[in-house]
Amino acid sequence: MRRAHGAPSESNYPDLSACSGYPQRVVTIAIVAQVGGGFSNIGGGTAIVSNSTFSGNTAPSLGGGINNGSGTLTLNNSTIYGNSSSRVGGISSSNLSVLDMANNIVAGNVGVDCLKFGPPVNATGPNLVQDGSCSAALSGDPMLAPLADNGGPTMTHALCTGPGEPDAACTGRSPAIDAVNNTACPDVDQRGEPRPVDGDGDGNAVCDIGAYELQVAFFAFEGFFPPVDNPSTVNAAKAGQGIPVKFGLGGDRGLDIFQMGYPKAVQIGCTDGMPTDLVEETVAAGGSGLQYDPATDTYTYVWKTDKQWAGQCRRLSVKLTDGSEHTALFQFK
Ligand SMILES: [Ca+2]
Ligand SMILES: [Ca+2]
Asked: pTM here?
């Protein structure tokens, strides 16, 4: 394994030619070279690169991040971000080359993100390429945080989980998180953190695209407590009453547990014959917000309903800051 860090230098890219046949984990940052700023595979070499980050490298015309000359390059679970050249900022691969790609992020590069001359890219798994080049399965902004020490021996671009999280530069949630139904990835990420991790709380552990796998410590949601029943039961309630929505998260997680805009209620169609269950308890509605009772390990949120909802059905959605969403169904009288 070779790594190159730190100060820009001329033609100081890692030479992986002696390592053919083994997955290499490399990080190249801010390197300037004539061709292949971060990494160049030439002379008929075979290179396998996995769990690697190429960030901020520069070459004059081709392959600011990676140049694949006349060789065979297998590139998996890597992030090629923020590199530049006048023509192809991310990955350039010649007409004499073979380029196999799976689970890579290629984005934020100056010049096109990826260009394969001659035979097309062999996309052996989904790739997120911002400008849609190189047979991308996904395109658009991958929402990456700036290069930083996120644990492990080398720096990485973390996946943004929302505005300002985990970095102030983040503007939204990365589409690379549990991006596609894909479990084919190394069992660790670039940092050595386990893969795949369920990044969206839907119960399915799916690989994130790129070199970084989001690690999530999910709240241990224990379901809604009485008086609210969990789906598929439909709670019967009187429109206008305040409904105490109670639940547990396996301990005191603080009061900053709701995602912005939640809890919210969405009107849904009422179907004849749906099971109903009376909400047995009501409390005075109004502004009580969220409370946590350590004695019973219970969160309580008083949901103020509207009199005008009489005759309607609604689905209450509680989305938590771990990305998980929990719902309860109501029919109003
Ligand atoms: Ca994941
Ligand atoms: Ca998932």
From this structure: 0.66
